[in-house]
Design goal:
The chain is α/β, with parallel strands linked by helices. 31% of the residues lie in helices and 24% in strands. It contains six helices and ten strands. The longest helix is centred in the middle third of the chain and has 18 residues. The chain is globular and about 50 Å long. It comes from Streptomyces paromomycinus. Keywords: Transferase. This is tRNA (Adenosine(37)-N6)-threonylcarbamoyltransferase complex dimerization subunit type 1 TsaB.
């Protein structure tokens, strides 16, 4: 097994190579506006650091979100392209699950990322490997009871620390492709079926067609 993992659902552009037992190389750059520019060079550098060729990859792992429309699509399209070019399977994992795995907690907690529009993407976990709720998008005030009662990690929790009062110091802020790959490797070794590589948006994209848009047809 040689996994190439990538995720662009958060402001972090993150890539890792995992051999089924450990992370061989990983890179993360935080820049919410340059996912498309940063991803492929990061893949090249991580493969070079791991000392492997792209053709040796046996599986692609990609974070499927939830995340903003444009950034999330960069990772998913890239993963699909690699999968088709190499004729290898492409596996999806919830981005929040990767952050939860990186947190390493063995108690109930929340993961929250920044969804913009004064909202967060979030889910509740029993421990680092066990998600209890489906990913959701809400205003922090709407989940204040849960956010105030449980430990929390992620950029969304840090951004709204007045609501997420149990923010864990040193907890992961953004996604780690190394954690995503390690979680995928565990699941694949157990024979678990991962998610299809389809985007988990949870809401409409920020860009909308104007309501009074007029379609012009040729005469």
């Amino acid at each position: 097994m040689l996994l190439l993992a990538l995720d662009t659902a958060t402001p972090a552009v993150t890539v890792a190579v995992h051999d089924g037992s450990r992370v061989l190389a990983e890179e993360r750059q935080v820049d919410a506006r340059r996912h498309g520019e940063l991803l492929l060079p990061a893949v090249d550098r991580v493969l070079a650091e791991a000392g492997v060729k792209l053709g040796a990859v046996s599986d692609i792992v990609v974070g499927v979100g939830p995340g903003p429309y444009t950034g999330l699509r960069v990772g998913l399209v890239t993963a699909a392209t690699f999968g088709a070019a190499l004729d290898v399977p492409v596996h999806g994992l919830c981005t929040l699950d990767g952050i939860a795995y990186a947190a390493g907690l063995d108690e109930p907690f929340l993961v929250a990322t920044d969804a913009r529009r004064k909202e967060v993407y979030w889910a509740r976990y029993a421990d680092a490997r066990t998600r209890l709720t489906e990913p959701a998008v809400d205003r922090p005030a709407d989940i204040a009871d849960e956010a105030g009662a449980l430990p929390s990690v992620g950029a969304g929790a840090l951004l709204y620390a007045g609501t997420f009062t149990g923010v864990r110091d040193g907890g992961p802020e953004h996604q780690s492709a190394g954690a995503l790959a390690a979680l995928a490797a565990e699941k694949l070794a157990r024979g678990e079926e991962l998610l299809p590589p389809q985007p988990l948006y949870l809401r409409r994209p920020d860009a909308q067609v104007p309501a009074n848009y007029k379609v012009v047809t040729p005469k």
